[in-house]
Amino acid sequence: MATTSVGASDVPNPRKNDGNSRNSNNTDTAANGGPDERPVVFSVRHLWKVFGPKADRIPDDADAAGLSAQELREKTGCTAAVRDVSFDVHKGEVFVVMGLSGSGKSTLVRCLTRLIEPTSGKLEMDGEDVRAMDRGALRELRRRRAAMVFQHFGLLPHRSVVDNVAYGLEIQGMGKAKRREKAAEMVDKVGLAGLEKRRPGQLSGGQQQRVGLARALAVDPEVLLFDEPFSALDPLIRRDMQEEVVRLHREEGRTMVFITHDLAEALRVGDRIALMRDGRIVQLGTPEEIVGSPADDYVRDFVRDVPREQVLTVRRAMRPAEDGEDGDGPALAPDTLISDAIETVARTGGPVRVVDGTRCLGIVDHACLLNVVARLQGPQHDEHGEVAA
Ligand SMILES: Nc1ncnc2c1ncn2[C@@H]1O[C@H](COP(=O)(O)OP(=O)(O)OP(=O)(O)O)[C@@H](O)[C@H]1O
Q: I need a labelling partner for 232 at 20 to 30 A (CA). Which of 108, 148, 376, 387 fits?
């Protein structure tokens, strides 16, 4: 069985210096308080997937809805792998589905392209009703619009790297010269230039996964769906691949849905994380929201060992400015990680302003930064991490 793992020193954030706020562009309600205005790619409402006899009766059965997974199994013989799940995936975000083994991650993501047929609920891609699509439209959806990258790379052993990458284009009917050219471009993009002619058996696990990634990218899908893509890789290569995903995302802004049971991985790659338990989403939020404001004891326990200073930003640490403090002196942007702010405050030796443009949002000093790291009660923040006046 898979376990959740968070190494205490294991969550450095590869995008912390990318100039993008981790939480200004990634929630239904953005950090500035406004809604996420980007178009919705996947819209999921009240989705259920029930396995077992008379499965379609379960979603409407008020009694069944109140039962735990085990009670439901005992009483009805059914497993509700996905239970009344609703969320939107916005264009350009990395949406992570996380949870322990058996929580419903794979079932949920397979439902998005109907690799698994949902039992009930509403499912749209770019406003189109996915549940109403016929075979042809579904094939198109899976081949061109939402490409899946699996843990087991599914490479063709007798084909070269470049021909494996070109495979999806071949299925689409693209001519040989053109698809090879495109495939070579993708091989280059994922850092495998020079290895085009090798066979999969002559590559390391990490390199094989890069071929899988290049193959998915070659068809230029609107969304990439990753099903635990890196869980078979050793930790260093895994880290490399996570950074690769973040780099590709940053450079291309491609929408990604990423399944993992590893919290450190979720925090590293995710713009938002849906944390699942027994088929339900128990919390959906940015890494900072999940770590800084866990929805319940289950989530709190889940994130207990996360090094908070590497996930939370100064928004969560700052206190209101006192008279005279909001003038000159050193300043930090509101999305600065606590770990970086500690360095600045230690260097300057005094309070530092948190500034959004010309507006002073608050102050961080030794005490409030320590409070966050030590989990002590500091200033009150609303659910978006804004300090209360
Ligand atoms: N075809 C099936 N028939 C019956 N039950 C199923 C079927 N597929 C999945 N399940 C059950 O649905 C639940 C969710 O399974 P799912 O594979 O979606 O979980 P997961 O979170 O992806 O797990 P893992 O991390 O181990 O892959 C589990 O209890 C599983 O046993």
A: 108
- Does the predicted interface ipTM exceed a cut of 0.95? yes
Please report the domains of the chain, with CATH numbers, ordered by start residue: 312-373 (3.90.1280.20)
Q: By C-alpha distance, which of 365, 361, 264, 364 is closest to 307?
A: 264
Comparing C-alpha atoms, which of 349, 355, 301 is closest to residue 331? 355
- Tell how far the Cα of 104 is from the centroid of ligand 1, in angstroms: 6
**Using CA positions, which residue lies closest to atom 14 of ligand 1?**
104
pLDDT tens-digit profile of 282-334? Answer: 999 999 999 999 999 999 999 988 999 999 999 989 999 888 777 777 899 99
- Which residue minimizes the CA distance to atom 30 of ligand 1? 102
User: Comparing C-alpha atoms, which of 318, 310, 306 is closest to residue 368?
Assistant: 318
Q: What is the pLDDT of residues 56-81, one digit of tens each?
A: 888 888 888 788 888 989 988 999 99
In short, whether 116's Cβ falls inside 6 Å of ligand 1 is: no
The atom of ligand 1 lying closest to the CA of 108 is 18
